[in-house]
Specification:
Elements (H helix, E strand, L loop, with lengths): L1 E5 L7 H4 L2 H8 L4 E5 L13 E2 L9 E2 L1 H17 L7 E10 L2 H7 L4 E6 L7 H7 L2 E4 L9 H12 L10 H5 L17 E2 L2 E2 L9 H19 L1 H6 L4 H10 L1
Parallel strand pairs: 1-2, 1-6, 5-6, 5-7
Antiparallel strand pairs: 3-4, 8-9
Helix pairs in contact: 3-5, 8-10
Bound molecules: S-adenosyl-L-homocysteine.
């Protein structure tokens, strides 16, 4: 998976590239991250990227030209890597909200060109001429697209084959099967007054699977009735649900 990220703050991306699962996936060449600073595509001595908005108002707006050149460069780099199917994504509070089904859909591409806004946003003409889709990470406004770009990349990288060992724990994550994850316990056996649920110590795999599924069902019903409504249990799960009533 190829990610070209257009950002005036490339240093921020060490949080993704140097740590944890994402850092390891990049070191193992399962994900390739190219950071592109649009200031390198400016033509003035000050490497200026922003200007005052026409019509007045507080704040600054990112100019179209350096961003257009940066996107063209990102596309040429994608092609040079044989990654032809890389849509241009603008991280924006006005985009469609990221959710697991969208993550899986994004993973179908060869890669993404991620455009990170700063200041008050980007000249609308650049968005109309160069951007294929806009993605939001939620209904709140951040000061830049860098954290959202890292959120999108992290959510995708953990879905790539072989990134999570045998990918077993990614398959169990919340949302993946349409339900929230079951509760987890580890050492010690007793924490405060609370013991670990007996069934988890039994070594009885079928009982454990049933207990975990029923916990998932209870949690999802209580916390996310919308997800529960959309969930259709298979035969085995229907039986487990009946037994647990
Ligand atoms: N005035 C703009 C927001 C500018 S915030 C508007 O209301 O649309 C500066 C940058 O942060 C944006 O260009 C965008 O890239 C990023 N950003 C802010 N909030 C975001 C969110 N919820 N999701 C994705 N990107 C966001």
């Amino acid at each position: 998976m190829f990610f070209a990220v257009i950002t005036i703050l490339p240093e921020m991306f060490t949080a993704l590239t140097e740590f944890g699962i994402t850092g390891r996936a990049i070191a193992n060449h399962q994900a390739d991250v190219l950071l592109i600073n649009p200031r390198d595509f400016t033509s003035d001595n000050y490497r200026r990227i922003d200007e005052r908005p026409f019509g007045g108002g507080a704040g600054m707006v990112m100019m179209a030209e350096p961003l257009a050149k940066a996107i063209d460069y990102a596309k040429s780099q994608a092609l040079a890597r044989g990654k032809s199917n890389c849509p241009v994504v603008y991280l924006s509070p006005q985009g469609k909200t990221l959710a697991e089904p969208m993550v899986l859909d994004l993973c179908e591409h060869d890669g993404l060109i991620l455009l990170c806004g700063r200041y008050d946003g980007i000249d609308e003409r650049l968005l109309q001429q160069y951007v294929d889709r806009e993605i939001s990470i939620g209904d709140y406004v951040l000061s830049g697209g860098e954290l959202p770009a890292m959120v999108v990349m992290d959510s995708m990288i953990r879905r790539l084959p072989h990134v999570m060992g045998d990918n077993a724990s990614a398959v169990q994550d919340s949302f993946v099967d349409g339900l929230l994850d079951y509760p987890q316990y580890t050492k010690p056996l007793k924490f405060g007054e609370q013991a670990v649920p007996e069934v988890l110590l039994s070594g009885h795999h079928a009982n454990i699977a049933k207990w975990r599924f029923v916990e998932q069902a209870k949690r999802t019903q209580a916390r996310r009735p919308d997800l529960w409504q959309a969930f259709s249990p298979d035969k085995q799960q229907q039986k487990w649900l009946k037994d647990s009533l």
